[in-house]
Design brief:
By secondary structure, the protein is mainly α. The protein is built from six helices and no strands. It has a single domain, classed as Methane Monooxygenase Hydroxylase, Chain G, domain 1. Helix 2 runs antiparallel to helix 3.
Length: about 210
C-alpha cells in the first residue's frame, strides 16, 4: 500500500488549507452574529473566503484528475474536499440571506448554532494534519467523536430554536426567515459531521 510519496503531499496541504479556510469562515460568521454591524462589509469578507475555498476545491479536483497514484482513494479525496467546501458555501449563503432579509436583530439561538459550528471546524482543522500518518488513528477517531458531539448539540439547539420561534413570534415572515437561517447554520454542522465520516472511512481502510 502506497501512503507517502513526496509528489502526493500536496493533497494533504490542500486539505489543510481547506480546513483552515472553513474554520476562518466559521469565525467570521460568529463575529458577524455577535457584532452585527457593517453587515455588507462583513458579508463581503465571507464571500472572499468562499471564493478562496472554491479555488482550493478546484485545485484539488484538477490535481486529482492529473495524478495517477493518489495517497487516498479518489472518491475519498473528492468527498473530503467537497464537504469542506460545502461548509463555507452554507456559511456564505446564511450571511447573504441575513443581508437580503434585512434582519435587524440576531436571535441568540443563531449564535449558539454558530458556536457549535466554530467548535466543529476547529476540530476538523486540528484533525487534518493527522491524516498524513495513520499512526495517529486514535487521535483522529477522538476528533471525529468530538465533531459528532458538536453536530448533535447543534441538532438540539435547532429543535429548541424552532420551538421558541414558533412560541414567541407572531410574524409569519419572521418565522420563515429564521427557520431558513437556522437551517443553513445547522446544515453546515451536518457537513462537518460528513467530514468526520470521511475520516472514519479512511481509518477503516487503512487500519
Amino acid at each position: 500500500m502506497i501512503w507517502f510519496m513526496p509528489k502526493e503531499e500536496n493533497f494533504f496541504e490542500l486539505f489543510e488549507r481547506a480546513a483552515d479556510n472553513a474554520h476562518e469562515a466559521s469565525a467570521q460568521l460568529l463575529e458577524f452574529l455577535e457584532k452585527f454591524d457593517k453587515l455588507e462589509e462583513r458579508a463581503k469578507r465571507i464571500k472572499d473566503i468562499e471564493h478562496a475555498g472554491d479555488k482550493i476545491t478546484h485545485d484539488t479536483l484538477d490535481r486529482l484528475a492529473r495524478t495517477f497514484i493518489t495517497p487516498l482513494d479518489r472518491e475519498d479525496i473528492h468527498e473530503l474536499i467537497v464537504r469542506l467546501d460545502d461548509i463555507v458555501d452554507l456559511i456564505d449563503t446564511c450571511v447573504n440571506r441575513m443581508v437580503v432579509y434585512r434582519v435587524t436583530k440576531v436571535r441568540p439561538e443563531a449564535r449558539e448554532l454558530a458556536m457549535c459550528l466554530h467548535h466543529a471546524t476547529a476540530l476538523i482543522r486540528e484533525a487534518m494534519p493527522l491524516l498524513r500518518d495513520m499512526k495517529n488513528s486514535r487521535l483522529i477517531h477522538d476528533k471525529c467523536i468530538a465533531i459528532q458531539t458538536q453536530e448533535n448539540e447543534a441538532d438540539r439547539i435547532m429543535q429548541q430554536a424552532l420551538a421558541v420561534l414558533f412560541d414567541s413570534c407572531r410574524d409569519p415572515i419572521e418565522i420563515i426567515k429564521w427557520k431558513d437561517l437556522f437551517a443553513e447554520i445547522e446544515s453546515a454542522t451536518d457537513r462537518c459531521e460528513d467530514v468526520a465520516n470521511v475520516f472514519d472511512t479512511l481509518l477503516l481502510k487503512h487500519a
